[in-house]
Prior knowledge:
The structure holds four protein chains of four kinds.
Chain B lengths: L11 H23 L8 H19 L1 H7 L2 H21 L25 H34 L1
Helix pairs in contact in B: 1-2, 2-3, 2-5, 4-5
Chain C lengths: L1 H19 L3 H23 L21 H32 L13
Helix pairs in contact in C: 1-2, 2-3
Chain D lengths: L1 H12 L3 H21 L3 H22 L12 H25 L11 H12 L4 H9 L1 H21 L18
Helix pairs in contact in D: 1-2, 2-3, 5-6, 6-7
Amino acid sequence: xxxxxxxxxxxxxxxxxxxxxxxxxxxxPGLLCVFSTFLLLGLxxxxxxxxxEGVSFVYKVGNWMPPIGISLVIDGLSSFMLVVINxxxxxxxxxxxxxxxxxxxxxxxxxLFLLMLGGTNAVVISGDxxxxxxxxxxxxxxxxxxVAFGTEHEEIEAAFKxxxxxxxxxxxxxxxxxxxxxxxxxxxxADIAMSLQAGSAGIxxxxxxxxxxMGFGLxxxxxxxxxxxxxxxxxxxxxxxxxxxxxxxxxxxxxxxxRILFNVLGVTPQLSKILxxxxxxxxxxxVTLAVGQWxxxxxxxxHSISQIGYVVMSIGLMTPLxxxxxxxxxxxxxxxxxxxxxxxxxxxxxxxxxxxxxxGGLRKKMPVTGNTSLVASMAIxxxxxxxxxxxxxxxxxxxxxxxxxxxxxxxxLASILTLVSFAKLQKFAFFGALPEQLKNIxxxxxxxxxxxxxxxxICTFGAVLLLSPVAGNFLQxxxxxxxxxxxxxxxxxxxxx
Amino acid sequence: xxxxxxxxxxxxxxxxxxxxTVGLIMLFGIYIVVHGHVAPGGGFAGGxxxxxxxxxxxxxxxxxxxxxxxxxxxASFLEGFGALMFLGLALLGFSGGxxxxxxxxxxxxxxxFSAGEIPLYNIIISIKVCTGLFAxxxxxxxxxxESKLKGx
Amino acid sequence: MSAYFLxxxxxxxxxxxxxxxxNIIKIIIGIMISEYAINLLxxxxxxxxxxxxxxxxxxxxxxxxxxxxxxxxxxxxIVIGLAITVLTVAIALRIYEKYGTFDITxxxxxxx
Amino acid sequence: MFLMIICAVLAVEIKDLxxxxxxxxAVGLCLCVIFLILKAPDLxxxxxxxEVLCLMILIRxxxxxDLPFSTSGRWFFNTFITxxxxxxxxxLGSFCLKExxxxxxxxxxxxxxxxxxxxxxxxxxxxxxxxxxxxRVYDTFGEATILFTAVLAVMTVMRRRARKDVNEPExxxxx
Lengths: 497, 152, 112, 175
């Protein structure tokens, strides 16, 4: 397991190399970006494969024992997240080579892209609270710059909104870290979990948990804190919105929240109730807003909020089935939402507009985009053979099993509304009559088609992941980590021995 | 800051005073960087002080003079290079078995040449910080000129 | 104890400024104030009564130093704050250039 | 400490942008002095320098700009909600603070090691420096990367033109 720090080294060093060469080698930035993300994907799958269930690997940075130095921890959950992140990043990097030809200073884009990816990976493998905060900031600063990449009115405004919101979120997180440090006098997560187990009656730990929920909720875009999300996704360049929706909110918001609440602080029934209510609220509220949207990407952005709501609610159930369903839905959502954003990018690339009123009949002219988006729409609204159906079914079943019939009804309702809005999307964008000014529209280049096809295949055969031999290796260890809660600390200590 | 003479520089008094002080400020910054491991301070503070000395130069003499000292290409090259060096030093730790492991000898306490990699890190950080902040300031000021020209 | 509380008050002032003020520069100022408050909180946590600065000097045995870990952490946090401030100022300047104002009520291209 | 809060309130409430920037500078300088009193000389230096730089940048940004001041329609309602939130935050926070170790007596579980062994192991007499650059150098690496990212980001945001046609070559030098 010497390879763990390479999850951070590879993207960051590639970013530095790109900035050294700038424009001098025209092909280098894109090539390096795709190459490094491919390497990372291979590395993450390798890590996932070599990890036995219920075991954590701990890497001591600089050969210091963890409470003194910083440790990197890999267990079932983080390796699962790494696979998701690097899969989506690879696909998006491939897509952005062609797409970013519409912007100047492409080397800048790729460098920031890799910095953001490195920050996200580092957050996922970090075993130290302050270290997590530092890389959280790295990821949010670079993503804010990426949102502002177009430097037009909307982009700048959305970037400012996003930056302010995410900074406020990180300030809450930093405050919570400060309180925890004073209470336990250590920054290592395993160490904190150990010392909290000794007994903590009082208001401090709930208060800190609420601070964490506010901070990471802002990053994840749950409903009371969602104001930045639609603007940001609409304004950002499409690869960035695909990456942010597919990876960013999940690894910086949901993953960190789960890791800290479940494994470090210990989750109480009240907290899980809060999570479920937040999840259900985002699920229903966002989807009702989404039905009325006419901008392709804005509609997708509202759906992002709503699907994150599914994930959070289902994990908040705290039953094995609920957590399994939540994580499976997280994976599925990454794939189909990224695919939809890539479709939106392709449509924008070809037709130069995102307004659903001005589109129509694109299916004949752009067969690949049309068909893949059909797959993705069916997956997100839960039509049987695709992966979205299975995870939604499991979520509803888990709700029923946990005697939360009300939440099950809300989930079903949100699912129906999702179906409605995507039927509308398909009708206005891809079916119907072709408008006059789009007569000589062409299909997008091969490098943009390939990622969409790959993601569509994953969407179609995603249910394979539920078969017991695959799930046992892929999903089950992650579920174990969350279920075991504060056993996390013992695993880390064991691994150090 | 008087009107719009940033392009040319400021009055004679300011120029003379800053000519005298720039060297001292820079020296002080370098002192802080090099003694980072035995006295308060360190790479970051020292780097910012060095950057401030360049910024003073720019405010006093106008941007051409400052750009003579550090051309923009050199600044951005040093920035990327500093980052890469940091990572390189970290990777060097692999020869000692771990990422970021300290492979040099520790030396004797209280001496200037001690504490293994710490002074090296300090120097690298200071280069990076100095050039980076200078570049940021330059970009912000340049934009201001541009919008002013547009206004006229 | 009261020192901690004052710190929280400072944090709340910054937060109020971010949430309520209509001027972009004011929002940036609010962020800066909140950051200062948290840095101060960390250092207050580190303080020990009659403590000494965490510096060894030759031939002198010093007990009772203050906690050095938060100081290292805060110096990282200060730099992060600097980076954030610089980026927000850059974006604010750009907004000024595009819209001709710092007032966020007049910057309403996107519907919230 | 009180001075700091007064300055902060001033900074928030003053209508003139330039004065409020100066007031923030005062807050930062007070913070610097407090760091010195609390025995953190490294931080005092860093804070002072950063403060100067921030102020310079903010002054460049605000000088000779207009000073808009407007109140929106739902002013009362929004302020009310904000104040309730802040009051809840403060009261809950003050309860929490009671559970922390009292001022001047930190627990120092991990830090004991640094104090006892740190100088011997790392060879640096400045303990803060030895923690920053030896025990927790990975954090510092992240910090340096953040600064690097900020430089790149500012350059990205300040480009003169961002969009071009697909087949158009890259324009030469933009910022």
